[in-house]
Amino acid sequence: MKKFSVVIAGGGSTFTPGIVMMLLDNLDRFPLRTLKLYDNDKDRQKILGEALEILLKEQAPEIEFLYTTDPKTAFTDVDFCMAHIRVGKYAMREKDEKVPLRHGVFGQETCGPGGIAYGMRSITGMLEIIDYMEQYSPNCWMLNYSNPAAIVAEACRVLRPNSKVLNICDMPVGTLRRMSQIVGKKPEELEVRYFGLNHFGWWTSVKDKEGHEYLDQIRDYVSEHGYLTQIEVDTQHTDPSWQETHKKAKDILAVAPEYLPNTYLKYYLYPDYVFEHMKEHPEYTRANEVMQGREKHVFDHARKIIENGSAEGIGFDIDAHATFIVDLARAIAFNTHERMVMIVENNGAIANFPDNAMVEVPCIVGVDGPEPLTQGNIPAFQHALMFQQVTVEKLVVEAYVEKSYQKMWQALTLSKTVPSAQVAKELLDDLIKENGDFWPELH
Ligand code: NAD
Ligand code: G6P
Ligand code: MN
User: Fold this and answer.
1) Which residues does the annotation say bind substrate (predicted)?
2) Pick from 180, 128, 185: nearest CA to 159
3) Which one of the ligands is nearest to 143 CA?
4) Which residues' Cβ are closer than 6 Å to ligand 2?
5) Whole-structure pTM over 0.80, yes or no?
6) Closest Cα to atom 1, ligand 2: which residue?
7) Residue 144 marked as a ligand binder
8) ipTM of this predicted complex?
């Protein structure tokens, strides 16, 4: 079997060790010859790099491993780049979540003003790593988790239309695990139909391989419990704030009960509720929860491995997030034609939605990448919400390209999460100040 060379961009990410563990777990299905980490923060990456070097020496010494901040070393001779960078790191995520609160609007990593601000930062970092990849390994695929995926995907469509970049999100797979628990099946036994934008979609069908439809059964469950399940099958989204989010799916479903909603719709359908909730502890947002939780946990484990000089007895968690990206690499590498929900250019997949919108739909994935499956026409309620949101995402990318203050103001004004043009302007001026050189200068 062919052996592959993989670089993880954003090597210092809290998700890097989980993906490495998952890769090691899958060597029989997806063999590796080289594994590299790349980051532009040397000190942060070094901790995970050193620990993983020890772990790999013990568990898979045949794989060449290195970590680097040099783009040429990182991107030369690679088949896949698994990317998850966070431009501005946790310090800026904290601002994305806290700045909007000053203006009476909730703050979130990928939705509303926080997501818009993060989008403006991410585009520059994404273009940088795409260009490195194409310069040093022109045939490489980038499998990209870097957020906000909707804006990043639109930026790729506009600015790097021919690049081999696939944008993905782990929320549909994480939630499918919960659905599988609800109906007593394994996730891989279920096949879905789904339409939407990233962090903005609905399941229209959840069937087993024999064709039995579980939509009604899952709807009954969600209308009572949301996506809260007894056993934590989705081990990634377990912190108290996530439990709250899974529970809230019950109220999202109540608005449009025909389909099963993505949990992220709470930010668009219940923004006032999210804001009131955040106002109770404005100094402690999700960024703080992660810094004291996942980030601390992952880096503490890495430090322990370095201190012991061995990874024996110290593992890292593997979750749906890692499973999905490794399965995707495998689908391309071995032309498996697996069915996966991905972010792609619409081109008729949602019949009554613009061709040039980046949408999230099931695709068949093989050696040439994803082939979207047609989802037909969608109802007016979902269509109107999606059209408003996709226009926000397009305006952000246009604002980035044209360095346009006016278009950013329009993007924030149009976001369903912002109450008026006045608030949007005040927010924009504050975001410009707080994001400094991370944003292009707008005029
Ligand atoms: P993190 O801050 O721990 O890791 C991100 C790393 O990227 C940092 O080490 C940082 O130094 C590095 N980085 C920033 N800019 C860079 C650049 N230009 N070049 C190279 N490296 C750069 O963040 P995290 O919480 O582990 O999340 C990582 C990313 O994955 C985020 O964008 C997050 O939103 C995303 N994510 C996406 C999904 C999804 O569903 N698409 C799921 C989980 C996480
Ligand atoms: C889900 C989403 C990701 C998002 C993540 C945030 O997995 O699909 O896009 O980045 O949640 O999780 P966190 O634990 O960092 O708040
Ligand atoms: Mn996501």
Assistant:
1) 93, 147, 286
2) 128
3) 1
4) 109-110, 147, 169-171, 286, 290
5) yes
6) 171
7) no
8) 0.99
